[in-house]
Amino acid sequence: MAKKKISRKAFDKEMKRLQTELCALQDWVVRKKLKVAVVFEGRDAAGKGGVIKCITERVSPRVFRVIALPAPTERQKTQLYIQRYLQHLPAGGEIVLFDRSWYNRAGVERVMGFCTHKEYEQFLHVCPFFERAMIEEGIILIKYFLDVSSDEQEKRFLARAEDPRKHWKLSPMDVESSARWWDYTEAYEAMIRATDTEHAPWYRVGSIDKRAARLNCISHFLSMIPYEKTEFEMPPLPERLPRGPDVPDEVSFTHSVPELF
What we know:
- By secondary structure, the protein is of the alpha/beta class.
- It is built from 10 helices and 5 strands.
């Protein structure tokens, strides 16, 4: 029996609670100088961006940084593959959310032929050691794979095509991923098998229901980092300093935005 979908009202209520907890986690991460890296991988149109948006909506971009790297430059193609990701790993007091990550090599690069078989095999071999080194350096690494059905993916692609606000989400690569569904299935199966380790496991997020996926993923994320809430103390507002003799009533501008509404 299919689960009943979460209502907008219930979703908003629970999301408000979770976002309040994210603010508490943020304060704890800053206080304790924790280093957190969260990897979001999954099928195209599975909802990675939606989950990330909900996480970052009410927190500081100075603490929660989103990394979504473009295709590598010609120079980056000559570097160590992992090199361009290293500079984005978190420092103390930061949570970095990778909207796709070094796992591109095991997914799109393998399927679309953007890397050689030797490069692909080397990545699968080295990746667990790289992630262990990250963890030994004090980084809390959490890896999510958002999973969606073939029918639901196609439905979302068609919805993007009908909405001009979502056209930017529908690239030729996305369309190709629909045709190569089984190639990606094979690639992801091999990726999970090689990199689902005790020190850095993968967590599947079922995302046919977008609202449920967002709530489930954020709830799990919060459970992965023990934190304590601290009482907020409003600093006392100081008295306003006196106005100087030449200070005008208001700041004057030459140009203003037309008030259309």
